[in-house]
Amino acid sequence: MTAVGAALLWPIAAAESALVRLLGAQPYGVVGYTYVAVPVEELGKLTPLLLFALVAHRRARRLAAVDLLLLAAASGAGFQLAERVLTGASLGAADLSADDGFLLPGGTTVTTPDGTVLAVFAGHAVTTGLVGAVLGLAIVGRRYGGWLWLLPPVALTVALLDHLNLNAVLAGAALHPATGIVHGLLGGGVLTPWLLFLALVCAVAMDYRMIVTAAESTPALPGQPPLAGLRRRAWGRSIAMRVRVPADIAPLFRRVALSWVDLPVTLATTASSIAHELAVSVIAARRGPAALCDTWRFLRWRRANAMGEARSEGRAWRRYPAQEDLTRNAHDLAARLGLSATGGVTGARSAGALFAALPVVAGVSAVASGAEVAAGADRAAYALLALDRAQTWLGGLDAAGTVWAALALVAVGTLLVSGDGVPYAHPRMREFLRAPGANTGVVLGMLAPGQVGYALVGLVGLALPQKVNRLLVR
Asked: Residue 326 in contact with residue 301, Cβ under 8 Å?
């Protein structure tokens, strides 16, 4: 998805160019930076989610809320990577206004020479990830009510205003006072990473709550679920408080009270499920890379099937893999890890505890401003300017420079499209010593950019002490 986001730079730049010509505006003017670039880019970065739902609609029905967050964040990260690479290459320097950010890199802070902050933009990965996260909450959590569909417009408004404020400052303008007030109420760009973090927590809680509802048709994880005491205390507190909720109060107040009563059960069940999956992965890592990767693959399939069952709500849907294959994998994995396949948390009844928000509708405009920004901020650009600068830079290169630029572009593209899925084949020392030539490809594949992380985790797992084998044994 990161590669798709990077490739979006060209169609988004083409759309911006057509819209700039239609409006009769200047690409480097305020209109191009604000009214054209901001809505086109923020909406264009979400098109991969729509394409995914159209091309792989069966797989899309098994997606969790966190999956939509990750897909959206990857699309935004790829778009920003392409924009930064082209701008940095054409200008011969990196964007000095860039910072590392809180959750994801790529943020931008524009300041005056005396250090006054004029604009804070968390980055395309954060803003697009936020919109994807609340879309996931609305789609996956539709059983909790249609009010969740109020969240995507709010998140999109946050993304638009953060981006609009940045581009307006870079174009020598400022937000309209009314728009500035709305932007300040929504965090002013500073709170956007924290909003993404909150949406991530809510998405994780909702996903695990949905998985629990499909416990009857989902193979249990090997071993005994951890944090049993925490779950018992949460259930006891929930039951004790539930009987104190009056039955003769307004239905809305009663639902809110019951949701608050069930919140500890939701959190305890989520924490126990996460700890269970983590413990199974640690035990598998102790047994080598092959067992670890097979465990991760099983956990991914199990979660996808549970989400598909929960989201189907009794309707027919296509399982992948088949129920029999998933159950057989669960028993095989339990035997390899030396655990009984009797684990799993079942029957937790709770309402998803999600943050509430009201949609904010505000007009946006830019007015002239004489603010002077710090050196380096002028290197930032939107998609059309980044592509225009790159074309101008490529046109001034000689033959050798063009070849090197093409090779660099191919190298970056190769890194983006290289496989980063869980590997199936793993190098074995015995087989490598017997036939080094036949196993060289496996070793080189382990050193591929998208596979190095799996190899490192597998090697670290071999050094774990034997006592980790008793993490899920009581």
From this structure: yes
